[in-house]
Specification:
The chain has 14 helices and 5 strands. By secondary structure, the protein is α/β, with parallel strands linked by helices. It folds into 2 domains: 168 residues, 3-Layer(aba) Sandwich (Rossmann fold), CATH 3.40.50.300; 113 residues, Zinc Finger, Delta Prime, domain 3 (Up-down Bundle), CATH 1.20.272.10. A 5-stranded parallel beta sheet has the order 2-3-4-1-5, with helices on both faces. Helix 5 links the parallel strand 3 and strand 4.
Length: 334
């Protein structure tokens, strides 16, 4: 397989996505695209980048090779403006919200139109966000697809899709990439005050999140707030300053990091080692925090934090939620 040239984007296309991209392009160019294709791979592996690059490559009329879109032709421009007549990208209105049946009805209408390019293409990401009605409506289309229709579903947790949807899709699996390859890809993006190793640890080893942490001001600010919240949790003798810090953070990014911190505290207690995430914090503070709770309490807290994360989409009052969570760290039986 030839490799993708790296010039198409300011940041090189992730090398572990080259071969999946080539397979996607080949599928469409075979003129018999499968009506459903499930792109399955862990959170942050680059499913979104893969699908966007693929869709743009199909939109592009001036591509110099089989893989990279030119970025300048009318096809690329209309794709980038989200107004391409034969390509539709569907996502929740806000991150974490459901994709509702109205959106899927629009997909079905869109797919029923005729096409002049190789296919009418729709992406749904994350596919697990479809609610039951939306998924059932999409299933009907996958069972009786209009000619030339191709729906790409991206999922980090494909088991959450109904078995009937999964059975209607061809599956393209994106495995977690080799960590040396990820480090090599991120190396040119390292910036002052944050090494690649730190960015990967802070991003829970998700390559795309680490990349954002190295160049996206919003992600950098999010990490700064989460880190301050977790530092305050480790160092504070009372819950109140911690509640304020938790309230300033976005729980969607904070909770997975909190879970990771609890694992680091457990590791520190059991093996006297600091893991990569633990090393982002003061050793003494982490040790003190871990010893004060002990292994059983740490694992109970970890279990609780999984529940908090699961209940996030339905919890209405974030302020109360933060108080409840933080007080849990001070409620101990001894
Ligand atoms: Zn183009």
């Amino acid at each position: 397989m030839s490799s993708l040239p790296a010039h198409a984007e300011p940041v090189a296309f992730p090398p572990w996505l080259r071969s999946p991209l080539a397979s996607l392009v080949a599928l469409v160019q075979s003129r018999q695209p499968p009506p459903g294709l499930l792109v399955a791979g862990p959170e942050g592996v680059g499913k979104g980048v893969l699908i966007r690059t693929f869709l743009q490559r199909i939109a592009c009329t001036e591509a110099a090779d089989a893989w990279s879109p030119c970025g300048n032709c009318n096809g690329c421009r209309s794709f980038l403006a989200d107004s391409h007549p034969e390509i539709l990208q569907v996502a929740p209105e806000e991150p974490g919200k459901e994709i509702l049946i109205d959106r899927i009805r629009a997909v079905i209408d869109f797919l029923s139109l005729s096409h002049s390019g190789p296919a009418r293409l729709v992406s749904v990401q994350p596919a697990e966000s479809m609610n039951v009605n939306a998924a059932n409506a999409l299933l009907k289309t996958l069972e009786e697809p209009p000619e030339g229709a191709m729906v790409l579903l991206a999922a980090a947790r494909p088991a959450r899709l109904t078995p009937t949807i999964r059975s209607r899709c061809r599956i393209l699996r994106i495995p977690a990439p080799d960590s040396a390859l990820v480090r090599q890809w991120l190396a040119p993006m390292a910036r002052e005050g944050l090494t690649v190793d730190e960015a990967l640890a802070a991003s829970l080893d998700r390559p795309m999140a680490a990349r954002a942490l190295l160049d996206d001001p919003e992600a950098i600010e999010g990490w700064r707030q989460d880190r301050e919240a977790l530092e305050t949790l480790l160092e504070s003798g009372s819950p109140f300053p911690v509640v304020a810090r938790f309230q300033a953070s976005d729980l969607r990014s904070l909770l997975p990091r909190l879970q990771r911190l609890l694992v680091s505290a457990q590791t520190c207690l059991i093996s006297d080692q600091m893991d990569a995430f633990g090393r982002l914090f003061e050793r003494e503070a982490l040790e003190r925090f871990a010893r004060a709770r002990g292994p059983k309490e740490l694992s109970r807290l970890f279990q609780d934090s999984l529940h908090w994360q699961r209940d996030l989409p339905t919890s209405l009052n974030a302020q109360l939620r933060c108080e409840h969570m933080v007080l849990r760290f001070w409620r101990r039986d001894h």
